[in-house]
From TrEMBL:
CDD domains: ABC_Metallic_Cations
Xref: Pfam families: ABC_tran
Protein name per the record: Zinc transport system ATP-binding protein
Ranges of residues in domain ABC transporter: 19-254
Keyword vocabulary terms for this entry: ATP-binding, Hydrolase, Nucleotide-binding, Transport
Family listed: Belongs to the ABC transporter superfamily.
Keyword Protein transport: no
One GO MF term: ATP binding
Keyword Transmembrane helix: no
EC number(s) on file: 3.6.3.-
InterPro entries: AAA+_ATPase, ABC_transporter-like_ATP-bd, ABC_transporter-like_CS, Metal_Ion_Import_ABC, P-loop_NTPase
Length: 255
């Protein structure tokens, strides 16, 4: 392949649309939350979502993972209309508030390992490399010491770390995080941000993260929002601005 072809195919690859919202509106009964919003998240973008309480951030995330259906408009994931989309293992989603029934019997290790298996592979034997990935995820989230505890008996912050480890273990193509570090101590928060920045820079992943941590968002994604939807602002950074072969291409999320 000559260099022109090589750069063309790289550019085409890293600029695929991962999420597309096309004139999407949503209401809870008669309360309009999202009105006629269109945007595109490109492959390898890191999109930070900031907005006041009640602005509609969680509603937007839930629509993108198929938990809520837009009243109008269309959503596409990896180019497929969401109603036909089936590759859910390509997407990791950590919702805003997780909580387990205290009697839920699984251990922390089992919950983290379950991130490796889609429904189809649920009975697959856990191999040594899977255990190793699990150990690494536990270590990064500083929960090795509670690996054999029951998830339902942990504090909210500890449970949230388990969910993050579960989402990370699979290295999904797209990771959607809704206020992922709420209730987590400062050191683990800092380690987690370092980790996802590293994954964004080096592991070809696309990130969409709701956060109230304006310092973290602006530090990594810049101080100017790229787009907005009502009171929600979107900050964007592509993972390889320096060596992107088509520097003129907009990594904007606006259509
Ligand atoms: N299940 C629901 N039924 C009715 N109204 C809802 C429901 N969920 C959210 N809302 C309302 O929709 C609006 C948007 O809520 P949403 O949770 O999406 O906001 P948010 O930006 O994520 O807020 P926060 O920063 O507080 O998490 C709010 O006014 C909220 O009260």
């Amino acid at each position: 392949m000559n260099s022109e072809n090589a750069s063309t195919s790289t550019a085409a690859y890293c600029h695929d649309n991962i999420i597309e919202l096309d004139h999407v509106s949503f209401s809870y009964k008669d309360q309009k939350v999202i009105t006629d919003f269109s945007f595109v998240i490109k492959e390898r973008d890191f999109v930070g979502v900031i907005g006041s309480n009640g602005a509609g951030k969680t509603t937007l995330m839930k629509m993108m993972v198929g938990l809520l259906q837009p009243l109008q408009g269309e959503i596409r994931l990896f180019g497929e209309p969401i109603r036909r989309f089936q590759d859910w293992e390509r997407i990791g989603y950590v919702p805003q508030k997780n909580s387990f029934n205290p009697l839920f019997p699984a251990t922390v290790r089992e919950v983290v390992l379950s991130g490796l298996y889609s429904n189809k592979k649920i009975f697959k034997r856990v191999g040594r490399s899977d255990q190793q990935k699990c150990d690494e995820a536990l270590e990064v989230m500083r929960i090795t010491n509670i690996a054999d505890k029951r998830i339902g008996q942990l504090s909210g912050g500890q449970q949230q770390r388990v969910f993050l480890a579960r989402a990370l273990i699979n290295q999904p193509d797209l990771l959607i995080l809704d206020e992922p570090t709420v209730g987590i101590d400062a050191q683990t928060q800092a380690d987690f941000f370092e980790l996802i920045k590293h994954m964004h820079a080096h592991h070809h992943m696309t990130f969409l993260m709701v956060s109230h941590d304006i310092e973290m968002i602006e530090g990594y994604l810049g101080t100017e929002p790229r787009d907005q939807c009502g009171a929600i602002n979107f900050y964007v950074r592509h993972s390889h601005d320096q060596d992107c072969s088509k520097p003129g291409l907009q990594h904007s999320i606006k259509k």
